[in-house]
Design brief:
The structure holds two protein chains of two kinds.
Chain A: H1 2-17, H2 21-32, H3 39-65, H4 73-87, H5 101-123, H6 129-148, E1 159-160, H7 175-197, H8 200-210, H9 212-216, H10 222-248, E2 250-251, H11 258-271, H12 278-299, H13 307-321, H14 325-341
Antiparallel strand pairs in A: 1-2
Chain B: H1 2-14, E1 22-31, E2 34-44, E3 49-53, H2 60-68, E4 75-80, E5 83-84, H3 90-94, E6 98-100, H4 113-123, H5 139-150, H6 166-178, E7 184-188, H7 196-207, E8 214-218, H8 222-228, E9 231-236, E10 239-244, H9 246-251, H10 253-258
Parallel strand pairs in B: 3-8, 3-9, 6-7, 7-8
Antiparallel strand pairs in B: 1-2, 1-4, 4-5, 9-10
Helix pairs in contact in B: 4-5, 4-6
The chains are: A mainly alpha, B alpha/beta.
Chain lengths: ~350, ~260
């Protein structure tokens, strides 16, 4: 009995602690992807998946490790994007300040992280549905504020021609450079989350998720831990937001509209919020549906604009069959297969 | 009579208040109109081992919750090693050497045994917010290992806590309370639900604690309570009913009437 648990927990700790062979394989495929994938696939499918995956990852960190479902992550990302447009350069020359890249990128991340931390400081005093409500309310307020504020956020039209700086003489918006840029950022955030999950801070956050009262009785400040989790998640969301704005070359209130805010939740839940890789899987499925469902729908004689129907149905199916998302489905499948292989070897918990 | 006894004890010890491990003065906790505990005055010396007895609903656990800061008392003051901690949050009291175990195990089911104990060690030391993973020769990891061995959980080190048996969870509760440098521990029914063997193991763990660590133990099992404690406080209906040595309490007619139901005599 204990042996079976040992193997199970060893496998888990290997997955969290080291990097199993399957991940090396996937990493290698991602690295050589530009050799055989088209520009459209690189830029539109994978670039976008990595970016949405990063913002989803920031939610996964809060929800999976901290037990806090925050709907503010997309807004934090959008604010970082806005800051890049406002402090750097854009098509709206009367507002943009034209700072150098080494100044506007850190300041943008700092401002967005500060914002995310402040929202966290408000939200952590609430639990469950109220955390969702308060973060959604702030996200909605941000949307309407940016739409009505012309002095700083340029209102309804936002900023266009927001592009990455041409560092090392590379145009980072070309498909291959952008693919590697987004892959690099996604990979860094992924490994940062995997690493931090086993650090004292990450372990304590999981302790807060499992039992906040006991964490207090062990000498931890539960409130401070939760707020700092928002800070950490906001940094990842900020990077994701800046990349998103560079990819679209524009930022507007719609970047963090209510549908976009909800999409991040859908992405994280569909992929699975228990493990850092979940949001990337969710983002990949979401992007595939967004990009290809119009064709599928048209083939069935339906209007191509109804892609949300497919996403919604997909969400329902996943949540219905597996609360742990696609990852959970995969694990169930694996478990069932091993059980069929040798029922004597594996003891069910 | 009982209140007078409690008061006179408090007066006698009042002059040396700064030297006490724990000092409660007139602590009352109201839930709406219901007084879970009222006017509790209690003093425990450093290193003293005290049992708190009383029937269900006597207010024992509420008393613990007030001392650890899970609840703020409605009135009264709580001093820990001479310092007024009445308004301190729980984690500030823990950092001053107070520990507790819970009647119903409050553990981190999604983490392994070693993670649980490591967190307990981390909670009362620096680097609580560290983003760096512990190194292989980390002092606290070694300390966690020692504690796991001390409560006989070595075999279960890497098991998720939600998969532990009930008895093992009780043992882990004690390991968490021993982490860091505890000076005073509150044990809330540590023997509840344990087998006779596990009980005698518990008694040996408690009696082998270093002499400077005092504790209060809430226990329904008189055998456990009277074997590990040197003084006894009886509670009844949220008030202190009697204080004395185990022998005095055991032989007290009123106590036997009330708590032992006359069965002892």
């Amino acid at each position: 009995m204990t042996k079976a648990f040992h193997t199970a927990s060893n496998a888990t700790s290997q997955l969290i602690g080291g990097v199993p062979p399957a991940q090396w394989g996937i990493g290698l495929i991602l690295l050589v992807m530009p050799a055989f994938a088209s520009n459209f696939v690189l830029f539109q499918i994978f670039g976008w998946s990595f970016i949405l995956g990063m913002i989803g990852l920031s939610l996964m960190f809060l929800a999976g490790y901290g037990g806090m479902v925050s709907l503010i992550q997309m807004t934090v990302g959008a604010l970082a994007g806005y800051m890049v447009a406002i402090l750097g350069s854009s098509g709206v020359v009367q507002i943009s300040l034209d700072w150098p890249w080494w100044l506007y990128i850190p300041v943008a991340i700092l401002v967005a992280t500060l914002f995310g931390t402040l929202v966290g400081a408000l939200a952590v005093r609430t639990e469950g549905i109220y955390t969702i409500m308060i973060t959604l309310a702030i996200a909605a307020a941000f949307f309407y504020f940016t739409r009505q504020n012309y002095g700083i956020f340029n209102g309804y039209s936002g900023f266009n021609r927001v592009v990455p700086p041409a560092l090392f003489g590379v145009d980072w918006r070309q498909p291959m450079p952008f693919y590697y840029l987004s892959l690099g950022c996604a990979g860094l955030s992924y490994f940062a989350v995997v690493y931090v999950a086993r650090s004292p801070f990450g372990l304590a956050l999981q302790g807060v998720r499992d039992n906040p009262r006991r964490m207090g009785a062990l000498g931890f400040s539960v409130t401070a831990h939760r707020i700092l989790a928002y800070t950490f998640a906001s940094v990842i969301a900020s990077f994701g937001g800046i990349l998103l704005v560079w990819q679209n070359a524009q930022v507007s209130p719609g970047t963090a509209g209510i549908p976009q805010v909800i999409d991040i939740l859908v992405i994280a839940v569909v992929g699975g919020i228990k493990r850092p890789v979940g949001p990337f899987i969710g983002a990949f499925i979401y992007v595939l549906l967004r990009v290809f469902s119009p064709d599928v729908l048209l083939a069935f004689g339906l209007s191509g604009e109804r892609f949300k129907l497919l996403i919604g149905l997909g969400f329902l199916v996943v949540v219905f069959f597996s609360p742990d998302g696609v990852l959970g489905l995969w694990e169930k499948f694996k478990e069932r297969r091993t059980r069929r292989l040798d029922p004597l070897l594996v003891v069910r918990p | 009579m009982s209140v007078m006894l409690a008061n006179s004890t408090a007066q006698r010890l009042g002059s040396v208040s700064s030297g006490n491990a724990l000092e409660l003065r007139g602590v009352t906790k109201l839930f709406g109109a219901l007084a879970a505990i009222s006017d509790i005055t209690l003093t425990v010396r450093p290193g003293e081992r005290r049992a708190v007895l009383g029937s269900n609903g006597a207010g024992k656990t509420t008393l613990f919750n007030c001392v650890t800061g899970d609840f703020l008392p409605t009135s009264g003051t709580i001093r820990l090693f001479g310092e007024d901690v009445t308004r301190f949050p729980a984690h500030e009291r823990i950092r001053r050497g107070l520990r507790r175990t819970y009647q119903i195990s409050l553990l981190f089911g999604g983490l392994t045994v070693v993670d649980n104990v490591y967190l307990a060690c981390r909670g009362v030391s620096r680097g609580r917010y560290s983003l760096l993973r512990p190194r292989i020769n980390d002092v606290l990891v070694a300390r966690a290992q020692e504690l796991i061995e001390a409560v006989h959980l070595t075999q279960s080190r890497d098991i998720l806590v939600s998969n532990l048996s009930y008895g093992q969870q009780r043992q882990l509760e004690i390991a968490l309370a021993l982490a860091g440098a505890p000076r005073f521990i509150l044990f809330d029914e540590p023997a509840a639900g344990l087998s006779p063997t596990e009980r005698s193991e518990l008694v040996s763990i408690l009696t082998n604690l270093p002499g400077h660590i005092g504790f209060i133990i809430i226990e329904h099992d008189m055998d456990v309570a009277l074997r590990v404690a040197e003084s006894v406080t009886m509670m009844h209906n949220g008030r202190i009913f009697k204080e004395g040595t185990p022998q005095e309490i055991e032989n007290d007619a009123e106590v036997q009437e009330l708590y032992l139901g006359g069965g002892h005599g």
